[in-house]
């Protein structure tokens, strides 16, 4: 298990600000390498990251050299209320970040089964390792769309798998999903896990102990890069 930096905050607002500050610093560090340097940022969807995105969108970075992509996506059009791409465009790529680029997982006009090869091709043209990955977690211990009841979960959590993303269909989600695999998410300079509430704290602590069936345990176990967990009650 790599080193885990656990940070606890008095409020969700403070935790969101800390996450935004850390992500901005990681992107800024990558961009400072040269005037041509490109940065890539993978971010989760869901209800947690919105306030972090709002703050991050105001960071004075050269966002034209930054590509943002979802860690996972519901297989819905980018204007659908449940779209993570929509969340990124409406909450993160605003203000100073308006010039940022998006690498979408949803592809209009193709079957979900065709998406992984298209995404893999786009990833080949994207700055990697990712400058940073921001993940959330469900109370069932899933991260991205790697749910406990996903039939191909073992393959998706195999740290050496060559597949960067997989189609995910489970009872846990009303939508068909596309998710980056653990191996793709681990290809990052730094991983930030932003979680709120007592229940998620307990899931994290249980997974950290080992021996759980929570998918997030594989992330904690196999992460060899800095992993920062930011939590508020
Ligand atoms: C998604 C996310 C997912 C999310 C968790 C936690 O598409 O929903 O990528 O992995 O991070 O489900 O969701 P909340 O932040 O809403 O608790």
What does this structure look like?
- The chain is globular.
- It has 8 helices and 10 strands.
- It has a single domain, classed as Rossmann fold, CATH 3.40.50.1360.
- α2 links the parallel β2 and β3.
- By secondary structure, it is of the alpha/beta class.
- The protein binds 6-phosphogluconic acid (6PG).
- The site of 6-phosphogluconic acid has 13 residues, from loops.
Question: What labels would you give this structure?
Answer:
alpha/beta; 10 strands; binds 6-phosphogluconic acid; globular; 233 residues; seven-stranded parallel β-sheet; 32% helix; 8 helices; Rossmann fold
Determine Rg (CA atoms, Å). Answer: 16 Å
Which structural class matches the secondary elements?
alpha/beta
Q: What is the ordering of alpha helices and beta strands?
A: EHEHEEHEHEHEEHEHHE
- The pLDDT mean sits at 97
Any idea what the shape is? globular
Overall tally of structural domains: 1
**What hetero molecules are in the model?**
6-phosphogluconic acid
Q: Summarize the main sheet.
A: 7 strands, parallel
Architecture in CATH? 3-Layer(aba) Sandwich
Total strands: the figure is: 10
Query: What fold name stands as the CATH topology?
Result: Rossmann fold
């Amino acid at each position: 298990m790599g080193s885990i930096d656990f940070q606890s905050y008095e409020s969700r607002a403070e935790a969101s600000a800390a996450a935004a500050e850390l992500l901005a610093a990681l992107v800024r560090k990558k961009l400072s390498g040269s005037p041509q340097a490109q940065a890539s940022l993978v971010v989760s969807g869901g209800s947690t990251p919105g306030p972090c995105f709002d703050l991050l969108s105001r960071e004075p970075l050269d966002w034209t050299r930054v590509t943002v992509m979802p860690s996972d996506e519901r297989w819905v059009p980018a204007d659908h209320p449940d779209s993570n791409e929509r969340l990124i465009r409406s909450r993160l790529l605003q203000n100073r970040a308006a010039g940022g680029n998006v690498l979408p997982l949803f592809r209009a006009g193709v079957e979900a089964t065709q998406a992984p090869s298209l995404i893999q091709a786009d990833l080949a043209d994207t700055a990697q390792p990712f400058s940073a990955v921001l993940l959330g977690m469900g109370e069932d211990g899933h991260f991205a769309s790697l749910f406990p009841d996903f039939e191909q979960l073992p393959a998706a959590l195999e740290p050496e798998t060559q597949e960067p993303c997989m189609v995910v269909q489970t009872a846990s989600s009303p939508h068909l999903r596309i998710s980056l695999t653990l191996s793709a998410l681990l290809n990052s300079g730094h991983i930030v896990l932003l979680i709120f509430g007592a229940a998620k704290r307990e899931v994290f602590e249980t997974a950290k102990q080992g021996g759980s069936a929570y998918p997030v345990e594989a992330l904690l176990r196999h992460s060899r890069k800095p992993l920062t967990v930011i939590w508020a009650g």
